[in-house]
Predict the 3D structure of the following.
Amino acid sequence: MVNRRIVEILRTGQPDESVTIKGWVRTKRELKDFAFTEVNDGSSMVSLQVILNPDLPDYENTLKQLNTGASVEVSGVLVPSPGKGQRIEIKASQVKVYGEANPEAYPLQKKRHSFEFLRTIGHLRARTNTMGAVFRVRNACASAIHEFFQERGFLWVHTPIITANDCEGAGELFTVSSLNFQNLPKTEAGECDYSRDFFGKRAYLTVSGQLQAEVMAMAFRDVYTFGPTFRAENSNTSRHLAEFWMVEPEMAFCDLSGDMDLAEQFLKHLFKSVLEQCPEDMEFFNKRIDDSVLSTAENIINNQFERITYTEAIALLEKADRQFEYPVSWGLDLQSEHERYLAEELFKKPVIVTDYPVGIKAFYMRLSDDEQTVRAMDVLAPKIGEIIGGSQREERLDILEKRIQSQGVNPEELWWYLDLRRYGTVEHAGFGLGFERLVQFMTGMGNIRDVIPFPRTPLSADF
Ligand code: ATP
Ligand code: MN
């Protein structure tokens, strides 16, 4: 008897086939002369219904053990299901209970729980319908990311998690140290002496793999990273995590317009794949979480993204028939409310904003001839705001040195990064996509803490 996954049995199982399934009990219903239980193994939203007849060995005792949350193995034959909602069910001939779950104590009884409550039981919440759907979609999306790049010949490169670059300018850094915090070595000036620390200098958790991805792009042309990044920003929002996953393609011999084309094709591919891989989960989100999930996916797949410059965006925001909380003025960064207004209300689709003022963007972005703007682009999505941030990189040594200096960074610290401009420099471009923001956007989940299995946020690192 082959051990099959429930998703596959629900799709292709035929009457009279013998099957064995393993999973966790979702519900049990006892009737006068028989009982039902529903078993879920995480492979699909829908559970498989099991019919238990009294002729089953040890019927009474087994029924007592089959409480919500118990782990079981069920063998039997498939029979057409007379009930509605499922095509097929199992008539059990053998049931083995591995581990019981005391119904008085198990916190996940069959009823709706709030996402706030579920966060307090992070070790159990993966067994709920919503979290099951989220993590299946997350998986399908991760797999589609690799598929997209691998099909196009991009090399997946592994950039370091520990870095000594403190100059990337993307939010606050976590320090990595093996010093004894009860007795920190001090310099003569009374500051912490990091030269006595593990790496001989102050080290951090990375905020982005971009600078190292640029190194790899200068050998392999097209590369991407996909890994965790860390930001100690104390922003308790529904879109920020202290630990999140980022996808960062980097392409040599590529300018900003190639970068935008890739970003647009990329998002379209991801939405298409997830709709194909997880149709039931996506329908669930549309029905239960946000009724615009499916239309948003169609919108992304079928529409060309709007492309406007920052200067045009400011003009549109100044003309907007509403008050924003934060000021709108050329030279100031766009706030989430501005980004959402553009994507959600004005264009009603993703908008790519390009050519931001030089003063608000990072040193590595390519300076335009007007010297007022840099060749940056952000992809703004309805509901989420910024989902992708990218740019064409500054490939000219002299200009890059000046920009590094003007941001108060010593160019010597970035000697290796500058070497890329000394030896075989070429125009190149890339972007960063926040993976959790994407999963949020796809599923309509309101809080970023509910699209990563173990969220890390200010004052919270449980499980
Ligand atoms: P924001 O203004 O929203 O904080 P950012 O300008 O700091 O974003 P980038 O430094 O450009 O973002 O990072 C690239 C991408 O990483 C962003 O487009 C976003 O999708 C994602 N991102 C940034 N910070 C976080 C975070 N704290 N948690 C989750 N995703 C994030
Ligand atoms: Mn930020």
Summary: The mean pLDDT is 94. The chain has 13 helices and 16 strands.
